[in-house]
Design a protein that fits this description.
Length: 193
Amino acid sequence: MKIGVDLDGVILDSEILFRIEAEIFDEDVLNKNSLVKRNEILIEDRYNWSKEERKRFQPYLRKVAMDANLAPGAKEIINLLKLMGHEIILISSRGDTDSIMQEIGKESLRKYDIFLDKYYFAVKDKLQVCKKENIDIMIDDNYIKCLDVSKGGIFTLYFADSGMKLVEENDKLKIVYNWGEIYRVIKNKQKGK
């Protein structure tokens, strides 16, 4: 099978760090309590920040990208899946507004010895790339992208984190919380279950 996988919040724990930095920024830099929807993934939906305040937060994104750790189980399961003959393709939005973020992402993958079959950075339309690559399963932590990809007919695993918005599962969309669950779902799909 061809498996598409997101970088931030799936291979790396950067989304958790991102939310931590956003809380610190809101509290200590802006001296506000701007959180309006804590279970949203997009900064403009989570906080009532002005355009200028969002711009001031941008340098923190690079810091988070450099500080991100490998998600527990990511390397082990990716290696197992590759040994099983699956093709793993990175499909990430990272770098769509800051090309340096792509280089930081590539360096993180090298640092953790994560070797994938193909790499797509700065992707605005993940469904389009999934269709181009004939992806069988897409793994992402952004529920909006998961809904889009699954509605496009591609089986999608929503890698949910505590406190994030949940969506209704269906025959094309399943919620998972860790790499062990990802492994189980892919193995069962391979067996035809």
